[in-house]
Design a protein that fits this description.
The complex is a heterodimer of chains A (116) and B (111).
Chain A (H helix, E strand, L loop, with lengths): L3 E4 L2 E4 L5 E7 L6 E7 L6 E7 L5 E2 L8 E7 L2 E6 L8 E8 L7 E3 L3 E5 L1
Parallel strand pairs in A: 2-11
Antiparallel strand pairs in A: 1-3, 3-8, 4-5, 4-9, 5-6, 7-8, 9-10, 9-11
Chain B lengths: L3 E3 L4 E4 L4 E7 L4 E9 L6 E6 L3 E5 L2 E6 L4 E6 L8 E9 L5 E3 L3 E6 L1
Parallel strand pairs in B: 2-11
Antiparallel strand pairs in B: 1-3, 3-8, 4-5, 4-9, 6-7, 7-8, 9-10, 9-11
The chains are: A mainly beta (116), B mainly beta (111).
Chain lengths: 116, 111
């Protein structure tokens, strides 16, 4: 149980384009989803917290107009990186919370974004 | 002072020995504690959660929590080379939805 998927696993895009990443909880309803970013050999960095049907809460320093988050259902959240630039290249990971053990967060496999 | 602190390592342990990973946290109202394992290039995987003082065992893993001293540890018995990874300690503060992560301890099990 507690499986979270992400799509795509890997994406390469040109500078200036937008990229959408999907995060799905496959076997539980996720009341809360989280989006993280991780640069090579660095710690996880929380970008935003998203509750189903509400606006996301962004961490300090994360531009909400650049990283658009939608959590329209209890099993799906999306992150759109708008007008991507090479410095946005990173490993984007979502996690979901809400099943039987609702304190626990389960991570998706991550999406590796490369902006050329 | 960081909210959640871990020794970044690397920590090297011979195969078959006990690996001991430690984590301290600063917020006294922290209520939930988690250990995640992250292999290089992969996302974190939840391996243990602990909510009350004492020990919690799951297979070769034992989590230990001491709220008075504000530390949580993870013991891995009979360490295997496949246990080589970065171990992340995470803490949830009462009333908050998000987890606060330590910077992780890189563990290497030497055959």
């Amino acid at each position: 149980g507690a499986v979270v998927s992400q799509h795509p696993s890997r994406v390469i895009c040109k500078s200036g384009t937008s990229v959408k990443i999907e995060c799905r909880s496959l076997d539980f309803q996720a009341t809360t989803m989280f989006w993280y970013r991780q640069f090579p050999k660095q710690s996880l960095m929380l970008m935003a917290t998203s509750n189903e049907g509400s606006k996301a809460t962004y961490e300090q320093g994360v531009e909400k107009d650049k990283f658009l988050i939608n959590h329209a259902s209890l099993t799906l959240s999306t992150l759109t990186v708008t007008s991507a630039h090479p410095e946005d290249s990173s490993f984007y990971i979502c996690s979901a919370r809400g099943g039987i053990n609702s304190y626990e967060q389960y991570f998706g496999p991550g999406t590796r974004l490369t902006v050329t | 002072q960081k909210e959640v602190e871990q020794n970044s390592g690397p920590l090297s342990v011979p195969e078959g020995a006990i690996a001991s990973l430690n984590c301290t946290y600063s917020d006294r109202v922290s209520q939930s504690f988690f250990w995640y394992r992250q292999y290089s290039g992969k996302s974190p995987e939840l391996i243990m959660s602990i909510y009350s003082n004492g020990d919690k065992e799951d297979g070769r893993f034992t989590a230990q929590l001491n709220k008075a001293s504000q530390y949580v540890s993870l013991l891995i018995r009979d360490s295997q080379p496949s246990d080589s990874a970065t171990y992340l300690c995470a803490v949830q503060i009462q009333g908050a939805q998000k987890l606060v992560f330590g910077q992780g301890t890189r563990l290497t099990i030497n055959p």
